[in-house]
Amino acid sequence: MNDFDELIRELVKFRDARNWEQFHNSRDLALAISIEAAELNELFLWKSVEESEAVDKSKIKEELADILAFSLLLAQKHDFDIKEILLEKIHKNNQKYPVEKSKGTAKKYNEL
Amino acid sequence: MNDFDELIRELVKFRDARNWEQFHNSRDLALAISIEAAELNELFLWKSVEESEAVDKSKIKEELADILAFSLLLAQKHDFDIKEILLEKIHKNNQKYPVEKSKGTAKKYNEL
Amino acid sequence: MNDFDELIRELVKFRDARNWEQFHNSRDLALAISIEAAELNELFLWKSVEESEAVDKSKIKEELADILAFSLLLAQKHDFDIKEILLEKIHKNNQKYPVEKSKGTAKKYNEL
Amino acid sequence: MNDFDELIRELVKFRDARNWEQFHNSRDLALAISIEAAELNELFLWKSVEESEAVDKSKIKEELADILAFSLLLAQKHDFDIKEILLEKIHKNNQKYPVEKSKGTAKKYNEL
Questions:
Q1: With contacts defined as CB-CB under 8 Å, which chain D residues touch B30?
Q2: ipTM over 0.90
Q3: Chain C, 89-108: which have a CB under 8 Å from a chain D CB?
Q4: φ and ψ of D49, to 5 deg
């Protein structure tokens, strides 16, 4: 069993003990991810880049864990293999953002 | 090396080949997560729960991979151990959402 | 003075009494809008379309007011005329979504 | 007829010509607002505060118009009076953020 499977097993155990699978359709899981992402962003609101790096790490940890938890539950729902989808994405982005064109610039692929 | 470390290593390799670490401050990584989360949600916009389950899985995969990629990069930036922060979160939520009170209800902990 | 100008005047009065213009750059105002939008969405999380219509209207009002407040402040910052930008947008969407093609379908313009 | 009523009338005309009211439940309108808010934020991603102020104004205009359009449609759905809900909010925030405590600080009301 790999690390993702182990975490997903814990998340599913937590979910099923509460009979929450009924609420976890794809649409609501996606919404939950974006609400948690907004809570993460709120930690940095009205703060400069420098001030943002001084934000309490334990708060960043908590919001990031929420985002990851709902993301893993959505992956589990669709039987996605986390490692596989991430490696595929990196592979695609390698082609979308060729090193020679994208080095040192934050431009989107369609502006390169 | 565990699975997360392996993925993070690949993400960092991709990032560093492009000299992109300069853009990856916490504030922008958090913003990137929430923009990718919105793209995931857009797949379900104006769709019922049932229609949402029929959305092209390859699109869900791509958006979820983007969310996870930026989440892992933010974790890497702060030296968070993914497994640890998720297990801690599950532990906290076990106390915040006791089974007997939260079973079968989607209420928030402060409304239980 | 039209209605938007009047509201913007009140918002600016509130802002300036607190010396908050220094925080109100475009980037942070945009982030504030999206955080308030997430709070609006949270009212509907884990709820069906029907349950969502039963959500306490006073809460919807509050979150919507927050979204509008930051939106008007961003418009003010750039000297946008609210009425003009909205009428322009409707005009554009009239061409992007021709009635005969878009009637009764929620498809995006690039899928019509 | 005030300015908001006039704009809402145009938005409703556009919507009804396409028979789109069926899609415009509160939950989806709220989601649409947050997706448009993410598109606004994407204009500023990986950019400093200064670079953000140099972003093409016509793009900011378009995204802001989308946010306002869905916000006005949600207000119309619930028969909210825009002017009233905003003035009420400013009134509440006047009490939540007393000038003497909040002047020059971006702290949240619960941290003042």
A1: none
A2: yes
A3: 89-90, 92-94, 97, 99, 102-104, 106
A4: -55, -40
Distance between CA atoms of residues D32 and D66, nearest Å: 9
pLDDT band at A2; cut points 50, 70, 90:
confident
Answer yes or no: are the C-beta atoms of A76 and A8 closer than 8 Å: yes
Length of chain A: 112
Q: Is B110 on the interface with D (CB under 8 A)?
A: no
- Of the candidates D31, D47, D106, the beta carbon closest to that of A46 is on D106
Which pLDDT score is estimated for B1? 61
* pLDDT tens digit sequence for A84-111: 999 999 999 999 999 999 999 999 999 8
Say if pTM beats, i.e. exceeds, 0.90.
yes
Joined together, the tokens standing for residue B107 give 């209420």
- Which residues, 6+ apart, have CB-to-CB distance to C39 below 8 Å? A38, C63, C66
Q: Round to whole Å and give the CA distance between D68 and D83.
A: 14
Q: What is the pLDDT of residues B55-99, one digit of tens each?
A: 999 999 999 999 999 999 999 999 999 999 999 999 999 999 999
The predicted pLDDT at position A1 comes to: 61
Measured in whole angstroms, the distance separating CA D74 from the mean position of its chain's CA atoms is 11
Could you give the count of Cα atoms lying within 13 Å of C58 in the half-sphere of its Cβ?
A: 2
Provide the token pair at D86.
Answer: 């905003």
Shortest distance between the Cα of A85 and any Cα of chain C, in A, equals 26
- List the alpha helices (DSSP H) in A26-104: 26-42, 49-53, 57-77, 82-96, 99-102
* CA angle A22–A28–A30, rounded 5-degree value: 135
Q: Which residues of C touch A32 (CB under 8 A)?
A: 45-46
* DSSP characters over D17-67: HTT-GGG--HHHHHHHHHHHHHHHHHTTTT--HHHHHTS-HHHHHHHHHHH
C35 closest CB neighbour out of A31, A32, A45: A45
Rounded Cα distance between A52 and A40, Å, is: 11
Taking only Cα atoms into account, the Rg of chain B, rounded to an integer number of angstroms, comes to 17
Contact present, C103 and D19 (Cβ < 8 Å): yes
pLDDT digits (tens, 9 = 90+) for C35-79: 999 999 999 999 999 999 999 999 999 999 999 999 999 999 999
**Based on C-alpha coordinates, what's the Rg of chain D?**
17
Q: Which residue, C52, B4, A37, C10, is CA-closest to D87?
A: C10
